[in-house]
Design a protein that fits this description.
This protein has ten helices and ten strands. By secondary structure, the chain is α/β, with parallel strands linked by helices. The chain has two domains: about 100 residues, Ribosomal protein L30/S12 (60s Ribosomal Protein L30, Chain: A); about 160 residues, SPOUT methyltransferase, trefoil knot domain (Alpha/beta knot), CATH 3.40.1280.10. Helix 6 packs across helix 7. The relative contact order is 0.13.
C-alpha cells in the first residue's frame, strides 16, 4: 500500500491543482492530454513522458505528433507517472506529461545562453548529498545544475539515483567550478554564493533574472576564488549551538526563496 503521508500529500496536491486548471506561471510540467495538446500548439515542448502500454487514442496522437517534430518521447510505469504528475485524479495517473522550456540535453554553453536560475555545487563529495541537491534544484524550477566534484563514474550514477532521476528532466553537468563561474559572468549571470560568511540574508537578495547560485562542499565550503568572484554572498540565519546546517537545508531555503521571488 501507499505511504499514508505521501497519499495525503497527493490528495492535497490534487485539490490545489486539479487536472483541468491552467498550470501556474513558471511551472515546466504540462499534465494530462489536454494540457499537453495545448503545449504542443503554443509552447517549447522538449520532452514527452508517456504511460507505458497506454491505449488512449489522444495520447497516441500526441506521441506521434511529438515524434514527427523530433521531440523525445520516453515511457514510464503507472507508478512513475503517478509520482511525477503535478495533478492526479485519485489513483489513476495521467497518461502523458510534457516538459516545456527546459532542455535536459542542453550543453553547458546552451544552458548558459538560455539564462534563468542555475546552481553550482562547488566541491561536494558525497553522491547522496549531490543527488538530493539536484532533486531540490529541479523541483524548485532551476534551469541547470553544475557540479564541481571529484566523483568517479559509479559515484556519479549513485548521485543521479539519489536525485530520483531528476537529471532526466534538467541538464546536469560536471564542470570546473572556477571556469564555470567565469563563463556564467561572461554570459550575463550574477553570481550569488551561499556561505556562512555572507552579509545578507536570502530574502534580502535579488534572486530574479539570470542568477548562478553557488553552494559549497560538505567539508571546505566554497573555494575562496569563487567567493571572491561572486557578486553577493548570502547566509541562512542560524541560532543553535552547532553553527552548521546539512548541505541540503540552506540550499532548500534559498531555492524556495528564489522560486517565491521568481513567481511573484
Amino acid at each position: 500500500g501507499r505511504d499514508p503521508v505521501r497519499s495525503l500529500y497527493a490528495m492535497s496536491r490534487c485539490h490545489r491543482n486539479p487536472v483541468n486548471r491552467a498550470p501556474v506561471l513558471g511551472i515546466v510540467q504540462r499534465c494530462g492530454a489536454e494540457e499537453v495538446a495545448a503545449a504542443l500548439d503554443s509552447e517549447d515542448v522538449t520532452l514527452l513522458l508517456v504511460l507505458r502500454d497506454s491505449e488512449d487514442d489522444e495520447v497516441a496522437r500526441l506521441r506521434l505528433l511529438a515524434t514527427e517534430r523530433g521531440i523525445p518521447v520516453r515511457e514510464g510505469s503507472r507508478s512513475d507517472l503517478w509520482r511525477m504528475a503535478r495533478a492526479t485524479e485519485g489513483a489513476e495517473p495521467p497518461h502523458v506529461l510534457a516538459l516545456v522550456g527546459r532542455n535536459p540535453d542542453a550543453s553547458v554553453e546552451q544552458s548558459l545562453a538560455a539564462g534563468g536560475l542555475a546552481w553550482l555545487l562547488a566541491g561536494a563529495r558525497y553522491p547522496v548529498n549531490i543527488g538530493f541537491t539536484i532533486r531540490t534544484a529541479e523541483v524548485s524550477g532551476a534551469s541547470v545544475v553544475f557540479v564541481d566534484g571529484e566523483l568517479n563514474h559509479g559515484e556519479r550514477k549513485a548521485a543521479k539515483r539519489a536525485s530520483m532521476k531528476a537529471h532526466r528532466f534538467m541538464p546536469v553537468h560536471w564542470v570546473n567550478g572556477g571556469e564555470l563561474v567565469e563563463s556564467a559572468k561572461q554570459a550575463g549571470f550574477r553570481v550569488v554564493a551561499l556561505e556562512d560568511t555572507g552579509t545578507a540574508e536570502p530574502w534580502d537578495a535579488d534572486l530574479t533574472g539570470d542568477v548562478l547560485l553557488v553552494v559549497g562542499g560538505e567539508h571546505d565550503g566554497i573555494p575562496d576564488s569563487i567567493l571572491d568572484a561572486s557578486d553577493l554572498v548570502v547566509r541562512v540565519p542560524m541560532a543553535g549551538f552547532v553553527p552548521s546546517y546539512n548541505l541540503q537545508a540552506p540550499m532548500a531555503v534559498v531555492a524556495t526563496e528564489a522560486l517565491r521571488q521568481r513567481s511573484s
